[in-house]
């Protein structure tokens, strides 16, 4: 492996060696502003996140719930562009030295150009990309360029994925597998549930890649629950909501730093 995909793999391996799950935070670029978004990522790393996913705001985020849609809308109205996403990755990585990925729908990459996007993401220090709506059977061009530039290709699996489909997806992916804990859109939920544990079990039967669970985790107790069966715990809406609910940017940064600390404790409390 080359590029920051190695850093990503090493970070996940270190968490496993420490007998805990990795904490992966999601925040959209350009929210509440480009500068504010960069500071928010630094804050969650400072609070205890191991890895951050930078969302590329999209006008039709079909898998995102109302909280992230609201943040995306703020970022888009602020004029965020792919260049701002790359700057966010670069400055977050340079400030922390920790793995930063981009989570994006396929359409913006397709319009921007796959070669251009992968080259710029690698140059910015990015570790890879999570592509929730790119079908594996249509991913050859992306994977060719991602591999060329040392970037991870993280695919999403869901409880509805059949075993044969899981095997196809995990064989094509790299870095880790994003296991959606339930059917539906992103958002905080009262319970993450047994469905996620079963999906992790079935995914691990097809691959040695780490399996990280997202969708629905919002507090330390849920993080602890998921850390009991997954390699990583992914939290997005809860961080974004803290920023949205804050009276000002400074309060928002303090709030996400605090939440990261609570969740980091949660992923370490596995018996």
Structure report:
This protein is α/β, with parallel strands linked by helices and 271 residues long. The protein has helices at residues 5-17, 34-47, 66-77, 82-96, 106-112, 114-123, 140-148, 163-172, 194-204, 220-227, 237-245, 249-268; strands at 22-28, 51-55, 100-103, 128-130, 152-154, 156-157, 177-180, 211-214, 232-235. A nine-stranded parallel β-sheet has the order 5-4-3-2-1-9-8-7-6. Strand 6 (156-157), helix 8 and strand 7 form a beta-alpha-beta unit. Helix 11 runs antiparallel to helix 12. The radius of gyration is 17 Å and the shape is globular.
Number of helices: 12
Outline: globular
DSSP E strands, number: 9
Q: Which ranges are low-confidence, i.e. pLDDT below 50, for 5 or more consecutive residues?
A: 183-189
What is the radius of gyration computed over CA atoms, rounded to a whole number of angstroms? 17 Å
Largest sheet: 9 strands, parallel
Could you give the distance between the termini? 33 Å
Q: What's the arrangement of strands in the largest beta sheet?
A: 5-4-3-2-1-9-8-7-6
Helical/strand content category: alpha/beta
Order of helices and strands: HEHEHHEHHEHEEHEHEHEHH
Which short descriptors sum up this protein?
51% helix; 9-stranded parallel sheet; 271 residues
Provide a brief overview of the structure.
By secondary structure, the chain is of the alpha/beta class.
């Amino acid at each position: 492996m080359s590029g920051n995909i190695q850093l990503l793999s090493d970070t996940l391996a270190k968490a496993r060696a420490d007998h805990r799950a990795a904490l992966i935070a999601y925040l959209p670029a350009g929210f509440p502003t480009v500068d504010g978004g960069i500071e928010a990522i630094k804050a969650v790393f400072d609070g205890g996140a191991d890895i951050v996913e930078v969302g590329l705001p999209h006008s039709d985020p079909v898998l995102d719930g109302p909280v992230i849609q609201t943040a995306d809308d703020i970022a888009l109205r602020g004029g965020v562009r792919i260049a701002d996403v790359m700057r966010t990755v670069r400055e977050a990585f340079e400030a922390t030295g920790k793995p930063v990925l981009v989570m994006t729908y396929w359409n913006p990459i397709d319009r921007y150009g796959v070669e251009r996007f992968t080259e710029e993401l690698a140059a910015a220090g990015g570790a890879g990309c999570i592509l929730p709506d790119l079908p594996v059977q249509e991913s050859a061009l992306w994977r060719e360029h991602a591999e060329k530039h040392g970037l991870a290709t993280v695919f999403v699996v869901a409880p509805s994925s059949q075993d044969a489909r899981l095997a196809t997806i995990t064989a094509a992916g790299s870095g880790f597998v994003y296991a959606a804990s339930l059917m539906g859109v992103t958002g905080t939920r009262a319970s993450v549930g047994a469905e996620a544990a079963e999906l992790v079990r079935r995914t691990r039967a097809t691959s040695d890649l780490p399996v990280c669970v997202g969708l629905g985790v919002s507090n330390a107790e849920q993080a602890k629950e998921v850390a009991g069966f997954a390699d990583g715990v992914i939290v997005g809406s809860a961080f974004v909501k803290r920023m949205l609910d804050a009276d000002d940017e400074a309060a928002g940064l303090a709030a996400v730093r605090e939440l990261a600390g609570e969740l980091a404790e949660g992923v370490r409390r596995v018996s």
